[in-house]
Write a structure and sequence with these properties.
The protein is α+β, with helices and mostly antiparallel strands. It is built from 15 helices and 18 strands.
Length: 613
Amino acid sequence: MSAARERLAQIYRLIRSYRFQSLLVRNAAISFGLVLIPLLAMGFATYRNVEGHIRSSLIELNAATSIRVRDTIDAAIRDTNRMTASLVLEQETWSLFRGIWPDLRADERYTGVRRLITRFAHIYPYIESIYAYSELNDVVVAGHGAWPISRFDDTGWAVDYLSGDGSELQLVSRRKFGAYPLLITGIRREYASDGRRLGAVVINIDVELLARIISESEPGMVQHTYVVGDDDTILLHRDRALIGERTTDVPLFGGIGLDQPDQTVSLRFGGRNHIVSWAHSTYGTLAYVVTLPLDLQTDRLAAAHTYLLASVVVAIVASAIIALLVSVYSYEPVSDVVQLLSDPDGEPVRSHRSGEISYIAEQLTTVIHSNRRLKTEVEERLGLLHSAQIAALQAQVTPHFLYNALEGINWLAIRTTGDENDVSRAIGNLSDLLRYSVGSDHQVVGLAVEIEHARAYLKVMEIRYPDRWTVRWNIDPDVMCCGVPRMVLQPILENAVQHGVVPVRRSGVIGVAAHRSADSLVLEVADNGVGMPMGALDALNSELAGSAGIGGDHIGLRNVNHRVRLLYSDAFGIRLVPNRGPGITVRIRLPVSSPLDAAAMDDLEHNENPLPS
């Protein structure tokens, strides 16, 4: 049992260490083809069959919903028709239409009509209000009072009353007071025996209350219902903005024919697929359209999705097991790769192995040799850095001794004269330069700090060589907070002084510039001194671009260049450029670093003495 377990563990380790998995893919493809594809085909066929049945049931449901909506609203219209007919025949309204009642306030007959209207208005919950209009008296009687029609607050129905004719119930859609609520108004006109129009009974149906009754009859209904009048006007919809609109302005009605008998169709509009059913009112004046978005019925398809998902999971598991069993017998060549990893210089992979194994062995050999080369290069760089560190440590002994000696001399000069003098100030500048060179452990300082100490160095040199040069500073303020290697300018300035302007008899000019160029920080130190022959300058540039050490002439240039390349990369460093006139320009290219860390800046401010201006 333990041997079998060890065998499986070995195979597991081999598979985990194997990266070019074409054998595994091949075995998985075979097992998937034998197991997964047939199961998927069966699952897909089952899903399509279930989807067809669900679609048929949805069509039947939508058609039945349109019939129920028709029956509900037809019942409301039938009740409205019956109520208007009853009100017209009531003694109070019959008298109102045919008699002259001049006194609106005192005449008890108006009160009788109001009571009658109030009693009828409470019969059905969807009735918003009822009016009785007498054209002979020019009076509108409602449940809350009687007024001349010119002073009545709701006259939106009057235009339809005047423009229509006949004693049959007329249905119109409107907004009370031009805004709210939304109403379906039924108007039944009353005529005298000689054909004169006497008035009308007006019943206002609240559209929202009617829609609520429809929703209560269909709990959880997601369909959209449209009620269309005989003039192609939308009388009822959950979107208020559509009520009163013509069907020609709604994209849905462009794909159906309401003049056709009741039916159900599939239609796409608004970017979605819908089932659309319509039915006509038994009164012959209204049409009821019900739309059902198919993508909202995901719960109806959940069972089919679950079944298909279960089939896919079973197929994947079965395929994985088959692939693993096949891999037990086909992954043995992977041991050659493991052997190559453990002993790269050992026996090469046997030629009878598969092409994939040979390819892997070649790639691994290439990577191993490349890593060895990189390791050798890193070790060489570390050796150079170690040598530079040793040289720096050795060089610190003398600066520390000189720093302490200069402090003593500075104290002696002040005691001799009793106050600061030119000698003590020069010694102070020199002492600060030494402190800066051997001070903080930070390899990178702010450009502003480096420039400050470069100015101190030039002040010290001006004591030895008074009036021999003029310094021109051209520093972009935006780069003052960029990080630069410590003591990057002083060696270059020393080179410009000693080898540039001092050997000539005329007064020299030294220019110090700093600016940003693309993604680099460029520092330039230019002088109009003796310059350098073109051949020697090209040779020095080639040497600086190579990997030479820091010995020989121009130690300052080599030292700075070497430190820059060690800190960043070989893409940065120093290059010498001849001036158009006499002299040369030393150009230092550095990466544009972020502003220095606040802790590092604080350390510099507290541990390094500021230089005098």
